[in-house]
């Protein structure tokens, strides 16, 4: 049949909308969205019919259009925000939203989604201070006099530089002029904030006396920035915040600012050597300490500022503060996470749970996933023995691997772990299938293997992961 004879067979938009198999799509995505997909599919089908090379033999135009609508709906489903199983071994995976929240934080956010006492004093019935309890808990945890919460650490840096150092100098080491994700460069932040950058030292060596010689009448602040996402090795020197505080003895009008980045609030020297601890900066004499809420702190995305009351109050009163404040859901999650830190319930915080898993535990969990996967594979192929030769040939094995902290934290740290390795012919095809299924699983490829690192897979996810992987292996073999 000629293409021009097939064109009249294309179904009408309204007729497609009333088909029984379109009703669930309309209920989920709305009539307008499904109508848009129908029109897109019809346009693509017309274009294909006019080009005989694109015509699919044996498929009617109506069937092609319906299948195309299903594909568009599946693409939309994959683009919606949803839970993803992190089997990469990267604990703070930026593409997955960095720190997974604790169960208590999730429950608190769900509760806060309703009407809350965000700015209401329940005792007096009058207007209350937004985030007051979070600020108090932050001070209790870090030993600071005052605290402030903004929407991320980049905002905290911009706010501090603008309020304290607009049109004046901030002294900082050349080796700390970092660039983080999204081409966020510190010199450009200085420029946007109106602060004047005064570089001291060299890329690899900076001393206290370099700062001292640069301080003058135009100095508004001295700033130290943690490298966060890179490490310098070899012939390097960089003063600590304690050495700056004691060696410079700054006047009260010139604050010492410490951007520690990752937000570590518990010492883990055996796991994260050299990673700065927030409380140590406060105790050493920093006037303001900035850090992220969604990295090693283990909470939601936020920029946390702690320090001396006078400086924090200046930040809180500035008009920019309103543009950077966080919503009630973020405050709720922060509050719950702070409670866990203060009660030392670190195993309830997923980031710490993943960080501190022992080698023995990881090996046991990998073998558990391996055995569960083999059982699921057997069930998926109808109870045959196909899984045994798969395992004998080394196609599904437990292997030692290395995990990462991720999220721009502890770049020089490698964490030994274990993974279930799938030796397959087309690993990229398997990982794509795992990402696009339910539940979505993000794994990693190494050479001809797909690796499922159990450090970042929770116990409650193992059965679902095994079933999903088994189904994927059957479909792709």
Average residue pLDDT: 90
Class by alpha and beta content:
alpha/beta
Would you identify the CATH architecture of the largest domain?
3-Layer(aba) Sandwich
Write the CATH homologous superfamily of the largest domain: Type I PLP-dependent aspartate aminotransferase-like (Major domain)
Strand element count: 16
In angstroms, what separates the terminal alpha carbons? 36 Å
Describe the main β-sheet briefly: 7 strands, mixed
Into which percent range does the helicity of residues fall? 40-55%
CATH class designation of the largest domain: Alpha Beta
**Globular, elongated, flat, extended or rod-shaped: what is the shape?**
globular
User: Under CATH, the topology of the largest domain is which?
Assistant: Aspartate Aminotransferase, domain 2
What's the alpha carbon Rg, rounded to whole Å?
A: 28 Å
Neighbour order of strands in the largest sheet: 3-11-10-9-8-4-7
Whole-number total of structural domains: 3
Low-confidence stretches: 385-393
Number of helices: 20
- Residue share in β-strands: 15-25%
């Amino acid at each position: 049949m000629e293409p021009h004879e097939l064109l009249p067979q294309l179904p009408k938009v309204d007729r497609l909308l009333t088909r029984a198999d379109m009703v669930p799509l309309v209920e989920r995505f709305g009539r307008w969205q499904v109508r848009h997909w129908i029109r897109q599919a019809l346009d693509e089908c017309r274009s294909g019919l006019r080009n005989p090379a694109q015509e699919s033999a044996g498929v009617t135009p109506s069937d092609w259009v319906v299948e195309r609508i299903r594909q568009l709906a599946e693409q939309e489903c994959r683009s919606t925000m949803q839970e993803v199983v992190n089997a990469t071994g990267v604990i703070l995976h930026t593409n997955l939203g960095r720190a997974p929240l604790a169960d208590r934080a999730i429950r608190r956010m769900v509760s806060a989604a309703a009407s809350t006492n965000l700015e209401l004093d329940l005792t007096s019935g009058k207007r209350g201070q937004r985030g007051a309890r979070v600020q108090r808990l932050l001070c209790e945890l870090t030993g600071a006099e005052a605290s402030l919460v903004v929407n991320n650490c980049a905002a905290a840096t911009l706010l501090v530089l603008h309020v304290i150092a607009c049109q004046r100098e901030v002294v900082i080491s050349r080796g700390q002029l970092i660039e983080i994700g999204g081409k966020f460069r510190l010199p450009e932040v200085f420029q946007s904030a109106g602060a004047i950058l005064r570089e001291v030292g060299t890329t690899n060596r900076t001393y206290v006396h370099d700062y001292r010689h640069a301080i003058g009448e135009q100095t508004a602040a001295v700033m130290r920035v943690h490298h966060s996402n890179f490490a310098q090795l070899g012939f390097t020197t960089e003063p600590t915040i304690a050495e700056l505080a004691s060696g410079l003895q700054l006047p009260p009008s010139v604050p010492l600012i410490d951007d520690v980045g990752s937000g570590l609030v518990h010492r883990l020297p055996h796991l994260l050597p050299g990673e700065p601890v927030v409380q140590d900066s406060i105790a050493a004499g920093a006037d303001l300490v900035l850090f992220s809420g969604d990295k090693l702190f283990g909470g939601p995305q936020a920029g946390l500022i702690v320090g001396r009351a006078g400086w924090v109050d200046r930040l809180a009163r500035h008009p920019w503060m309103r543009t950077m404040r966080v919503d009630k859901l973020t405050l709720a999650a922060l509050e719950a996470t702070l409670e866990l830190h203060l009660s030392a319930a670190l195993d309830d915080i997923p980031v710490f749970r993943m960080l501190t898993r022992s080698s023995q535990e990881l090996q046991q969990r990998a073998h558990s996933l391996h055995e569960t996967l083999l059982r699921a594979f057997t069930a998926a192929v109808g109870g045959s023995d196909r899984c045994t030769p798969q395992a004998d040939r080394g196609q599904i094995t437990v292997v030692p691997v290395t995990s990462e902290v991720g999220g721009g934290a502890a770049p020089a740290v490698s964490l030994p772990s274990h993974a279930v390795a799938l030796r397959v012919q087309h690993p990229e095809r398997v990982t794509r299938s795992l990402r696009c299924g339910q539940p979505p699983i993000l794994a990693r490829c190494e050479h001809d293997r797909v690796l499922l690192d159990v450090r970042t897979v929770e116990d409650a996810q193992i059965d679902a992961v095994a079933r999903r992987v088994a189904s994927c292996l059957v479909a792709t073999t």
